Amino acid sequence: MDFQLSDDQRALRAGIRELLTGRFGRDRMRAALDAGVAVDRGMWGELGAAGFFALRLPEADGGVGLGLPESVLLFEEAGRVLLPGPLTATHLAAGALGAVKGAADGGAVVAVLDEGRPVAHLEAADALIVLGPVRPGGVARVLEGDALRELVRAARPVRSLDPLTPLHRVAAGVEDGAPLPGATPLRLEGALLAAAEQLGSAARTTEMAVQHAREREQFGSPIGAFQAVKHLCAQMLVRAEVARTAVYAAAVTADPAEIAGAKLLADEAAVRNARDCLQVHGGMGFTWEADVHLHLKRAWLRAGEWLRAAEAEEALAADLCRVHACDAGDP
Known about the structure:
Order of helices and strands: HHHHHEEHEEEHEEHHHH
Number of helices: 11
Structural class: alpha/beta
Distance between the termini: 28 Å
Helix content: 40-55%
Radius of gyration: 20 Å
Strand order of the largest sheet: 1-2-5-3-4
Mean pLDDT: 78
Low-confidence stretches: 137-182
């Protein structure tokens, strides 16, 4: 099995990096952040026009017709530049589900409702993917504390305290009685794409730390000349590359256990690399003007999305038990 990128995949990655650098550079990212804009509809439309959301939609349906490995490359680049918004949910709604009108061309914003977790970007969402069964009254509890809106599930409204624009449920293909939430295909794909964003963030914070270590001087020498800083940067690179191997392999095999492992490694790489990058930057890393803290906060949030550490660990443990039972000759 060949895990090396093809020429077409390398070209795709270079193209999306050029697109994001040109259309969503740091100035635009900062402007959206300072303005408190959760989802820039103009940017969302630009992403749709570029095929970001329709990448996995069949060509016959107006999509690009590519697969999960190519989606991983896109989301890695999105993680590098801190591209905001519910990218994974909208991408899945357009390509994997094909059930939300306007998602493919960037005309609709799709968020995720997963009971017991915050609903990110609810105030901007046109539709929700509902992951897993929601107990009676559970939706209202989840919506409390967020922008409160009326949610339509299975064509029946669930009232919130302040019903506004209706949202529509997307059939998420949830398997009833599944022993682990992470076992559902949609959740696994979402976890892998979130891991790809974490990978992009981990790689970017490594670059930021190395660049700062070269430029910042103390006692007449770049701080990168000091052994402690060298070790931090080397550890960051190792974490990012180990996560890259796991994420790329899981994108090819789509194996649930490998996806769980990739999410664990990518979450660790993104969070720990951002913390180490902040350490290299010193006091300025904590300031609003620096981007380091943004990578750290985003990494923390993504670590709790789609597949959390405890769920991923349970999935890996279950797979190890299954393999051990098969090796022992048990059915």
